[in-house]
Every structure is written in C-alpha cells, then in structure tokens.
Prior knowledge:
By secondary structure, this protein is mainly β. The chain contains no helices and 31 strands. The chain has a six-stranded antiparallel β-sheet, with no helix packed on it. A six-stranded antiparallel β-sheet has the order 21-22-25-26-29-30, with no helix packed on it.
Amino acid sequence: VEYSSTITVGGTTFGSGGADDILLIKVLPTGDLAWAKHFGSSSDQFVGALAVDMEDRIYLRIQVSGFNTTFLADDTLLTLPSNGDRSILVRVSPDGDVDRARVGGVGYAMDTAGNDLYAVLSSTPGTTELQRWNSDLELVSTLQLGTFEAGNVIIDVNANGYIAIAGSEYTADAMEIQGTAVPNDATDQNEAFVMLLDLQGGLQWVSAFGAMNPLRERARGLAVADDGRVFVATGSDTAFTFAGSTFPEQAPYNATVGFLLAFTNTGAEDFAVPAYSLYDGVTFWDVIVDDGGNIVATADVISSGIVGGVQVPACARPYTLLKLDPEGDMIW
C-alpha cells in the first residue's frame, strides 16, 4: 500500500500506516477472497520473499527501512535495531493470524519443502549461505555455498530432493561453489549463475550464463521439476549462444532479448526460448512446472515483440502467458 493511498479488497479498505506498507491477500482455488492482512508502521516496509508450507502456513520475509525501531505484527511488537539487519521473518496461520515472528538473520530468498523453510543469505561480502529453518522459525542449519557474493537471488525447492538457486554474482573474481570453480565471462564480471543442490545442500551442478548486459543481468524466475530439470526466466540480455543455438537480434527488435533457459538434471544446456522487444526492457518474469512436466512462463515486452516465435500485438506493455511441453515445444 503506497504512502497516502488506499486499497480496497473484498469490501475492506486498507490505508497506509504513514509509509509504504504490506498487504497480504489469500485467494481460494475458486477465486474467492479468503482474507486480507495489512502490515504497517511509520517506516517503509516490503516483502522480500514469500513461501507456503504443507500445512498452508505462510512465511514472509519483511524488510523495514527508515529509522522506525518497532514493528507491529498483529499483537506481536517487535524491536528492531536502528541500523544494520532490519529483516523480519513472520509466520501467518492459514486463517490469517500472525502466530510467530523473529528479527534478523533471515535469508532474502525463501521456499519450503514439507514444513522446512530454506533461505539464501549473503551475510558478508564474498560469502553466501544456505539456511534451513523449521516451522517454529528456529534456525536448524547453515551451509556456506562458496566464495561468491550473490545478488537478486531466487530459490525453488522440490520435495523430491532438489534445491535450485539462481542469481547474479557481483564480485570481479571467479566464483567457487563447494570446490567447483565457475569462471566469469571475460568481458562481463556480473555473470548470472544457476545451481542444483540436494536437500542436504550437496552440489549436483552449477553453471554460469551470458554474455549479458551487466546493468540488467539477473534471473527473475526459477523452477525445478520433479525429475531435476531446471528452468530460469531471465531479464534483458544481449544475444548469446545457448544449447548450441545462437539468438541474434531480429529487426526491428534490436534492443535486448529475454530468455527462458532450460537445463537438464545434469546441468547440460537443453533449450532456450527467446523474447524480443521493440524497446529495451523485455523480460521473462516467472516460470513454473505443472504436474505433467509442462512449463508455464510469463513474459513482457515494451510496445510490441515476439515471444517464443509468436508475434505479440502492439500495446504499451503487453504481457504474455505461454505453455511449453517438456521438450520446449509450444502448446499455446
């Protein structure tokens, strides 16, 4: 909820508490509203990550900016440091009540397997760790992933035994992940990476991809299938070669290209789906794998473009929903 604005959900109007606030909404499979929950204080706050466990409990990773030293989550008043780590981990019941909360030390990308919560945190420059929390918000274990500093990190956990992590590496040195060296591109030190781990954090494989525009390099969506295949939705990239295919610029779409990248369960490059835009800003936003192994993704272009070989009608910012079969062929 933006400062000085309101949002009405299901007949209830929510206003700002004095700065940018959080509105959490639960919608039933029928499309009906179950409930809406408002979090606010005199400082700005935003949700950095959201996850749901097998008992339908919701976990929010909240970041509070400004100088406010308290945060009210339902009836729980939390005390925040005046500077430093001002992250909050909140557990919300299926009925919408905040029943647990803690301050500090929370990874900024989260997902669940069963009732375990996995998170990724770059705690100090040059190090990134994988955290495992239980449903009571108790830290069970941490694992140093290697010598790299990750930014814009995303995580997807599959209870069949896989953890996929993707993001951007922001240091000028080559990455090292559990003893495996991942050199950066010679002309682009801000390389994007993707890795697959088992549920104990053991590295299965890691890959870096590019060359990409260093100002926009980031993975935006991530999914790992039941069989360990991994799919990455990327933002605006320069054209590059993937899985033996080259994706040059296509006139008049000579800005940048967004890609949906597919990796096999052994880390081999499988296929890529490009999205071309008339103007800079094209991106694949998110990706999921359904129960049949099909891939569903979203993309948006600026003004007009081509997504997966399909011409997108011209408008200000058209969004596209597409579905692919497990081999990457277009279903619709």
